[in-house]
Design a protein that fits this description.
By secondary structure, this protein is an all-alpha fold. 92% of the residues lie in helices and 0% in strands. It has one domain. It is flat, with a radius of gyration of 21 Å.
Amino acid sequence: ELISSLQSKLRTLWEERELVLSEARGCAEQGEELEVTVRELCKPNEFERYMMFIGDLEKVVSLLLCLSSRLARVQNAMRRIDGNTDAEEKQSLNERHKLLSRQREDAKDLKENLDRRERVVSGILAKYLTEQQLQDYRRFVQLKTSLLIEQKDLEEQIKFFEEQLGNLEKSIP
């Protein structure tokens, strides 16, 4: 019964992932259209700034999500520490926790810098785009970010349930 329930949950998550990937493809098309518009209207150096921002947006958000996910896994492992856990493993977990915490703080700084760059790019685009085009740009940036977050969350859930299912199947003779 439990195996069946996990398999059902996984099928639902896989379907959700397909929907999110479909939305991401639509978002990418929207981004390409926006890129053409910005290329046509802006000066080359302004267009380059826009492209750098869009490229860095995905990298920084993905980095932040990845580090947060890894940190959460280490924190979960640290909560499972008991009297039987050897000192070497405890020290390893503590060191990984410190390293990931520092890296996540650095990534947060990158995100703050990216947010400042977004305001600069938005100011540049405001000189060239209509109000509707500017709203489309802002929606695109917001959608791209939320889709990245949603994709990462679904991947984590799928990974978790696949591990649970694998462990359960191994435990049953």
